[in-house]
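retry 2 of 3: previous attempt timed out while embedding DGJ. Reduced batch size to 1 and resubmitted. Inputs unchanged:
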Amino acid sequence: MNAAIRTIHLTGGEVSIVVALDDRGPRVLHWGKRLAAAEVDWLAATSDPAVTFSSFDAPRHFGLLPVTGDGWSGTPALEWHRAGTAADPALVLNEATAHGHHEDGTATGLTLTLDDERSDVRVGLTLTLDSHGVLSIQTEVTSTATSGDALDLAGVRAVMPLPARATELLDFSGRWTRERAPQRMPVVDGSHRRTTRRGRPGHDAPFLTMVGTQGFGFGSGEVWSAHVAWSGDQDVSVERLPEGAGVHSAAIVAGELLAPGEVRLGPDETYRSPIVIFARAETGIDQVSEALHGYARDLSAHPATPRPLTLNTWEAVYFEHDPARLIALAGVAARVGVERFVLDDGWFVGRPNDRSGLGDWVVDTSKWPAGVEQLADVVHVLGMEFGLWFEPEMVNRDSDLARQHPEWLLGTRDNPAEWRHQLVLDLTLPDVHDYLLERMSAAVTSMGLDYIKWDHNRDLHGAVSRSMGGAPAVHRQTAATYALIDALRERHPELEIESCASGGARVDLGILARTQRVWASDTNDPVERQSIQRWTGVLVPPEVMGSHLGPATAHTTHRTADLEFRLTTALFGHAGIEWDLGGCSEDELALISRWAETYKELRPLLHHGRTVRADSDDPGALLHGVVSHTGDHALFAWVRVSTSSPAFTPRTQFPGLDPSREYTVIAREELGLASRHQVSDPPWMTADQPLKVTGRFLAEVGIPLPLLNPGTALVLEFRASSVTPSDNAKEPRP
Ligand code: DGJ
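retry 2 succeeded.
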């Protein structure tokens, strides 16, 4: 036993993190399964690898803040300099405080203070392991020099080690209307590095970086994952070097991407990094997802009230705001059961299309002679909440704002490239903050807004600050957006906000720490949505993931889908409608009303339960569901997005149910019959008595299902014998 090693054992959920503190600084000895006290001692006793050829003379170690001077040749946790000097961070541990002690002596958190006296820098590191087993790491860097050159930060990243058995990597890319497209690859030597330079996470954000054992899936394999809870530029790597990382094999290195000169600290100034979140699982992606949902549901901004069925006017009318038509639409919306009516883009002066008006947040009285208040009042009288669209960070060149305040624009170029005909406002300027806060706040008050859809329709390029001589501005702009949201919600604490960014380009746990919904994508095509929601939903709980019923032919793909499939797809999220209901037949409206009732009946389950997904060898078949935390009740969707190669559906297993409970299996086809590619259903579905089987049977043996036509979904409900419908409503928040 190495007596000089002090260990701190953090526990949360089923996870243990063991940090060693010795004269070489803090090191993570373990990030994985919960350990017994004796195992922690054994870890400490075996924490160093062999000394190999052509290497350091002492065993290599891998710290919590690895830098090249410590022998780590991968991307360092810390990079800085002072006018080209003091470029080797050499930190000495000054203080280590474990906090939140459990009865068994383990802790929930650890705060470390380290000093580099040669560079006059102090680093604070806070590790918090929550009850779901999710680790948050936040790093603070303070320049302690009282004079001389500023401390230029080039990188501040959180680093966690990976074992040799973590051989496969899964992260995401995407584009507009195709967000969260998974990409899987082997972990190889070198760096798989994802840097985002868009001033927002982007449609192609890495989103959640997962590394796992060979073939890991939703229900199997160990997984280690990281997410940067930040809505600006990001820098995430999975790195493996031939010499390993101490006794570990590789590392996840994640943080904010800092541009040269972006953070320059004067005396006593501090940079506080975004929180980097690490989640881990013994049994697959769904376990990671459950932990992350637990984390997200604990955020103070997370909504506590039932998620109102929403209607958004965008695809119904686009920019054609005719009060009579929209008031009529509100009437139909209320009739089918909508609870929140959101007026999208097009309500303010000079906005006949997307070429002008952005920034002038005053109602266009030529479109709205009696003001938007007229619609807001009708909506409220109809018993619905009223929401309004804004895009605060943006401005059209053709707007009074841009004409009056060219100095408010972000960037220094004379002719910056426009994107959707828009430029960006520098939110870090106090005048811009005040202007936006006043305009938005006035609208909230005069219209009684319950909700704002906050859009952000372009990447930020050349995002430097005019007033600071062209200093990089993405960090400050991101923080300024957060400050504006916070200020608005402080004035209007009941106001809810949706984060939208040309669909799902700003979906992260930084924005969800202050908003109540994300718009996952601009596509309402259910085939595309099945994949986007499946993967967005690994991080984002369904109750904050907007998912809308669109028209039969999707505006973004021109693919046509059955109403039943569109309804089922929209059900598994914070449901809404984005369709001109004025053009619907009475039959369609009746079905939508039934769906609205189904959503309201099932949302206590859908919005508080545990999301599960099945692994499948058939790429055209998707099975996903939500199981209540008590295991009493579950709802699954058996989805076919393309034809299957076999001519039948074999037994299909349903994950996540309580193995010991007996369930009644009910096909919920009140949203329309899922169209079949067969003569008749498996006989259990048409028997006089409903099928009753255990959760174990469903998980391990499974049941034959109908062979569906592509573009259909069958909803199956599982009720444990003792549960009654009214029990749903009582389900406690997890
Ligand atoms: C992009 C959003 O993603 C859409 O939902 C819509 O709000 C438009 N912007 C409005 O301009």
